[in-house]
Amino acid sequence: MNVLADRAGRAAISGADTSGVAEAIGRLDRLALLGIATELHRRTRLRNGGTHAPDQLALDLGAAERHRWIVAHWLDALHEEGLAGRAADGRFHDLYGPRRAELTAARTGMESARIALGYPPDLATMLLRSLGMLPELLRDEIGVQALLYPDGEPGAAEAVYRDNLVSRYLNAAAAEVLRDLAEQAGRPLRILELGAGIGATTADLLPVLAGRPVEFYLFTDLSPFFLDTARRRFGTGFLRYALLDISTDLPRQPGELDLVVAATMAHNAPHVGRLLEQAAALLAPGGRVLLIETVREHPQSLTTMPFALSPRKGTRPPERHDGRAGTRTYLRREEWLGWLERAGLRVEVDLPRDADPLAAMSQRLFVAIRR
């Protein structure tokens, strides 16, 4: 299955030159880090020397309580890239102060980078807007949803989750997995999609099911907004819609499902292992879990995604119980593979291949079958 899924993914990006992906990712990551460093240098006591705790710097920035953890998250990223020092007690010092010419050059190089990654202009616009609105985002004067869904439209979100090289590859590979499952099924399919959001992956899966026997495809999300959007976009038929919070128990349908889909959302679970165990328990023999997941947080997402993860109240980062220490958002590839195995699932697809330039984008398709 790994070979067939990879072949389908490659066909979806046929003709694209992927040789410059790693360099382009590096340029966009650098732009985001320089923008964050500029904001911290301009508006916090770090510019005056000394060592300072992240909470002090968050107060300097006027960060809302629920967003204060993000400042520590940013500083950790800056430290990892050599742009800030960190003392043994967790305080920070020697923040790099970007030069104006350096920032200008980074912005100038953004266009060639986004083209190399297959990003549409909407995504580059969103990155620049988010960098320019960091003070308002931190103070909670504007929500990240306004950047992802301007005027209530999913254009920027489509750019993040669908309209780029790696998303086209992964969604096409996922569709091939479903095609194989549908051809082998001995009865109408039963499918559950968790946290389906704007339906970026759903849109590639549904055409595979056209004309095939499907008992139901249950499209779920935490937000009524996404369910209403999906109803307008996809209609009904075998599609059903339901509100679902993955931090609580999943639907109680043990041993009934053929496929559980979770595209770029399973990392939101407080404990990924528990979520996968619950998903595995829902599967009929031979059923599959299909995940699309990020395995490394790239700095270019630091100006948007952390704001979407902030808890509604309090000053602590999102609650994690599966080894993601501190402010770490994503599991590493080997951690995903380990949790799938421990949930009683045998991994049969793990893409892109190690030698594929797309691997530098740190998003992967995992498909695992119930043992």
Q: How many domains in all?
A: 2
Biggest sheet record: 7 strands, mixed
Beta-strand segment tally: 9
Between the first and last Cα atoms, what is the distance in angstroms? 16 Å
What is the H/E string?
A: HHHHEEHHHHHHHEHEHEEHEHHEE
Helix/strand class: alpha/beta
InterPro entries: Methyltransf_12 (IPR013217), Methyltransf_Superfamily (IPR050508), SAM-dependent_MTases_sf (IPR029063)
Domain Methyltransferase type: 192-289
Pfam families: Methyltransf_12
Region (Disordered): 305-327
Task: Give your account of this protein's structure.
This protein has 371 residues and is of the alpha/beta class. The protein has two domains: 2-13 and 164-295 and 330-370, 3-Layer(aba) Sandwich (Rossmann fold), CATH 3.40.50.150; 21-117 and 119-161, no CATH class. Helix content is 44%, strand content 15%. The chain has 16 helices and nine strands. It has helices spanning 2-12, 21-43, 54-60, 68-80, 100-108, 110-116, 121-132, 134-138, 145-148, 155-161, 165-184, 202-209, 224-234, 272-282, 305-309, 333-342, and strands at 85-86, 92-93, 189-194, 214-221, 239-243, 257-263, 283-294, 345-351, 363-370. Strands 5-4-3-6-7-9-8 form a seven-stranded mixed sheet, with helices on both faces. Strands 1-2 form a two-stranded antiparallel ribbon. Strand 4 (214-221), helix 13 and strand 5 form a beta-alpha-beta unit. The longest helix is centred in the N-terminal third of the chain and has 23 residues, at 21-43. The protein is globular. The chain starts with a helix and ends with a strand. The model has no long low-confidence stretch (mean pLDDT 91).
